[in-house]
Amino acid sequence: MHGNMLRLVLIISAIVLQFSTCSVLIEKIDEERVENQCNLSEDLVNEIRGYKNVVSKITDHILNGKFKGEVHKSLQIFTDKFGSRMAGSDALEKAIDYMEDLLKNEGLENVHTESAKVPHWIRGYESATLVQPRKAKIELLGLGTTVGTPRGGIIGEVVAVRTFDELQKLPDSEVKGKIVVFAPTWQGYGATVRYRSSGASEASKKGAIAALIRSATPFSIASPHTGSQNYAQGVKKIPTACITVEDAEMIWRLYNEGENVQIRLEMEDYNLEPVISRNTVSELQGTTSPNKSVVILSGHLDSWDVGVGAMDDGGGAFISWKAVKFLKDMGLRPKRTIRSVLWTAEEYGYYGAKEYAKQHKENELEEFNFFIESDTGTFDPVGLDFTGNKDAECIFKEVLSLMAPLNATQFATPADGGPDISVWLDRGFPGASLLNKNERYFWFHHTDGDTMLVEDPDSLDRCVALFASTAYIIADLSVDIPKDVKN
Ligand SMILES: [Zn+2]
After folding, report:
1. 161-216 per-position pLDDT tens digit
2. CATH number of 42-121+274-476
3. Which of 127, 211, 466, 473 stands 20 to 30 A from 437 (CA)?
4. How far, in Å, is the centroid of ligand 1 from the Cα of 30?
5. 118 C-alpha to center of ligand 1: Å?
6. How far does the centroid of ligand 1 lie from the alpha carbon of residue 302, in Å?
7. CA 157, CA 376: separation in Å to the nearest integer?
8. 124-268 architecture in CATH?
9. pTM of the model
10. Could you confirm whether 346 is annotated as catalytic?
11. φ, ψ at 112 (rounded to 5°)
């Protein structure tokens, strides 16, 4: 009897609890429904849907017409001719000169360059050897702006950790004078790349003499991946490089098995004074005011000094300017200007974009309407990653729904905006980045494997058709894309 009563009370409480959870859920869904509701006027919706034929025309010309395969062909000529294009290098400046001529010859408008000061770091001779508990060569790539070792190299005992937390917990005396090897588990690029960016600084704070980092990639065939790093203010600058996933894991295991692990490291890398590089600009000028409400299409022209930067970011840069060229050749001139900007020195921390934002600050609210970027690969496109306010999102979703012929209607909001255009997006300007089937992007990222073999002509055609169609519609609409800009 007593037991049954208790059971009844429990059942009733469970029902009440479930009901209240349920009503909370219903309220939440209602809120979301209201939030997702778009109040675009019927006229505007009809206006946007009216661009369906334009999208068909653009898509057909690029996928089946005379432009077919052109992006791939041009990118191949470009990467074969200049190879890698590191900021500060002659190769990058020669590539920029070449692009300026090419864009003029291709009939683009207002072709010019705009200066930006960029880092100048030189990769010297680099070598690493495991000397204890056995001898083995360790492949490495110094990280951009790293200092070198003293002449003749250094030999250090190893401390291997997976996380910054583990390093923090070690007494300074256990790290001082040693080489820290970071072997972070891959947890996506954003979470994992922190070890590459700040590994040297964190190790240096504990008195380490060098920091070697597991390459930021989910997959490896024993090749190191380079990238940028930053020394925190006030820390002693120590040499830092990425090593392969295979070696980082092996060193971590040896260390945790209690072996005395020692590495000999020699790096002749060094920094020089910054130099002047350039962003490369070209346009299809709008039929109304050419310098107002411009739509930016962009990618970066610089790369690391390994591979040829075909994927990062040759593909992104080339679909950006080719989209403008194809629109012009098709006689599709929108009301507003579409401007392609090929950024310089993205890899060191978007120096080109930051300088461009500074130079164009004064009239930025009138000058810029929408920013588009491709810098996460140009594999098969699936849609666009959007950043902007609710009103902008409503317009954008309508535009994106027209990309069905390209199978690229997927809408997403990025965890972090595209690197170069984030300079504006983080402040409330609306913009979008290419979403593509880039599951293999980080396999090749910042390695000798970033070559034309990663790029597919048909995928590039679909990417450029998506960029051209989106930019054209946004530049031609009767309304600007709404923005909430903070300073
Ligand atoms: Zn990039």
Report:
1. 999 999 999 999 999 999 999 999 999 999 999 999 999 999 999 999 999 999 99
2. 3.40.630.10
3. 473
4. 40
5. 16
6. 8
7. 38
8. 3-Layer(bba) Sandwich (3.50)
9. 0.91
10. yes
11. -165, 175
